[in-house]
Each structure stands twice: as C-alpha cells, then as structure tokens.
C-alpha cells in the first residue's frame, strides 16, 4: 500500500500548505551529524534523552493527547504530560491542531523510525485559541500558565507562532520591543527562568511579534545542501540589506539595527508525524525552533545528573536561562575546521542566503555588531553545546580552563577578568559569548505576582556590558585583541583568531548603567590552548 506524502510549508503562520512530495528525508538527517548531531547524545555513554525535564509549547492550537482526543486514537508517537486551552485544562477533541502536533513530534516523538530530539522530555502544551477572538494578552496568559507547570520548573518553551503587527493595538506599531507579548516573553524569561525558543520571522508580511524580544533565542532555519544543513533557507526574512529599503524597516526587522536571529537550526524537509500517524515533510522556522527547545532538555538532563552526583564546578546556575543562551550561542557552528582544531572543531561552514560565510559578515568585521543578521551566532549543534557545557562553571577568582562557562554578577563601572590557565595557540580561534537580560517588570495591579489580562509591563531598559579578549603576557600595556561592544544588544559575541602564542584573559565590563547597579550575566568561552 502506497502512503500519500505531503509537504507542509509553514513558519509563524497558523495554517500550512500541503502539496504532494515525491520522497522523504529521514528525521535522523536533522538529528544526525549533518543536522544538530543530537542522536549521538541519545547513545552511550551519554544516554541523554530529556528524562524528567519539562519543556513547554504555546501555539494557536495544541497537539492531540492519547486518551483525550479521537484524532490521535491510533497514534501514540507523542505523549504530552498535559494540554491546556490557555490556562484551563483542554476539552476533549477541541483545539487539536496538526501544526502543533507536527512541532511536538520534532521535540518528543517516541516513534522508532522518527525519533524526536528529546523523546523522554515532559511536554506541556497550551492552545491560545482562535486568533479572531484572542490577542497578545491571552497569549501571555497561556505562556505564563505553561511556565508555571511542573512545580514551576519548566526549562524551555517553544513558540512556533506569533502575532502580525497589523493586529497590535498600538498606533503605527513597529518592532521596537514594546509589544505586550514581547515584553511578556522578556519578563517571563527572567521571572520564571525559562529559555524561549522563538521561530524566526519568515516571508514578507510574516508574523514578527515577538521576534523583537531581547531575552529569548530567535531561530532561523537552514536547508540541506548535499545532505548537510549548512545554508540559511531563502524564505527566512532576516537582514536589513536585502534591497527592501525602508519599506519593511520596523515592520519586519527590529528598529535601530538590533539583530533578531540568535541561531540557525534545520527547518527544511523535516519529517513530522500527523495526528493520524501519517508522515509529512515540513518546512519553516516553525520546525527549527523545536530543535532548539528539545536540545535544551538534553543539556538540562545532563546538568541535573551532574548536580545529583555533586560534581565539582556544578551549581544550580546550570539551570539558568542565561547560561543556556550563552552555551548554545557560543557552541554554534560557523566555519568548518580543517582538521587541526584551530577553528574549534566545527563540522560545517554555514552560509547565508547570498552564500556568504561568517568571514564576510559584518559581525566578524565590526566589534559593534555581535550577531549576523541572517545567521545569528551560527548553526545549532547539540553535541557541541554539550561539549561547551560539560566543562562546568568557572569563576574569575581563579584561572579558568580552555572551555567553560559562568553565571555571575557585575557592578556598574567595573570589570571582571577571567584569566585563561593555559597560553593560547597562534592562529587558533576564540569564541566567547556574554548574555544578560533586558529588565522588564510586571505592573502588578492586584499584587498577586501573576500576569492578569488587564495588566501591563514596564520596560526598565538594558544595561550596557562589553566583552574583550586581552593579551595578558608580561608587564606590557594590555592590548585588546578582540572586542564586542554593541550599545544596543544584550548579547556580546567574539569569534576571532589569536594573533600570537601567549597568555590571555577575558574581560567583562559594565559600561553603562541604565537600570539596576548590579547586573547578572552569563559567559561562555571556547579556546585552543597551546602545546
């Protein structure tokens, strides 16, 4: 019997287009070494499948749940822990949506042939409901409800949907970070300690809110060339230099030049499972974001394991959303290593829609621009993220190893320095990422410490932190080898070659105070020590 096969082409849109397709690409291609290399983590000795880690999903609809919905009565590929309509339990056979189900299978499918990234993770999913009657207030209420599940311990939440600007109630709305849902995401990131994986905007006239967030990670999607996911797909809408002039400025791109994309993940020809158990191929940023959400579940399972055995250099800071963001961005792939390890062992060269690699990017050339407008920090690689994460937390009070991360606080008008224990190798690359939060607070009218539909948020702005790699040899005047000094972003990112063998240190500098005098931050670094 021949199974009918389809494409699904969708990004942040609610509906999807299906047309016949001739062949499938196995899901393992996006989970294997040509994609995010997560399958390796499923196997011994790692055995990471997301066990006991709670993740969330918010969309217009929800995946079906076996035993509750007839639509999935013959299909047990996924088993959400709980499903909701906004902040109430979902009604049987109501709100089940193929798109939401497809996205969920990328995360938690237990189907042997089409395994998800974190098949044993605990998924909580909320449907916002019909877009005609619902808006950003209901969407914020839904995501808050998901963030509070599992005893308030949800590590990541997936957004494979968004709001169009024409529905935003603000007059002449633009992507300035002030939409209610965007403020909600930044508030919840900090208050609930959750990593939000947001499907990057795609296609002119797309659904850009809340891609103008500061504290989440926006995900663009890659397509495979010769079997390797290494090119930003043409339908991603990213970058201010595509010949569209001012027509889309502020409508589809962040105002002021702030970059929106954090990472790229596979999103083209991704095999997914429908509620009825049939297979489809799906394309869009909707299917890139869940690769990231579920990767966080794998990393968090590892973190909990380290904490359980009281491993040195591991604290509950490993659960922090800023740590996850720094680790994931810093381990992303840009330029393929030639085999000598000098490019940090990266397995692919990622190119943008115009086939330009990182070395052509203004992010590489300009210290005021931390991320590429199309590629962000590079391509998601779950195994590399594990390698970045596994070295544990190291503070600036003692010399630090070649690879590591930290979660710390810095006072205004001061600097903290991380002295690398071993000299660095000439011409080797250094990757360093600094992340911190925009401060968004809830205007809590009834003082219940929860967002209610009639409430608003207060944007307290963004403190300005800078990042430097500094030569630390001898008694000479310190020379800044590399720097990331954006005045508008809350990510600083360095990827640069070491000019000479020698000792180096990483400097975090609190450049300008805008809100609080003490700023929490996370730092991740990956270097190549000399012989």
Q: Describe it for me?
A:
This protein is α/β, with parallel strands linked by helices and 531 residues long. The protein has 10 helices and 23 strands. The strands form 5 sheets. Strands 3, 4, 5, 6, 7, 8, 9, 10 and 11 form a 9-stranded mixed β-sheet that branches. A 4-stranded mixed β-sheet has the order 2-1-13-12, covered by helices on one side. Strand 9 and strand 10 form a beta hairpin. Helix 3 packs parallel to helix 7. The radius of gyration is 22 Å and the shape is globular. It starts with 5 loop residues before the first strand and ends in a 5-residue tail after the last strand. The N terminus is likely disordered.
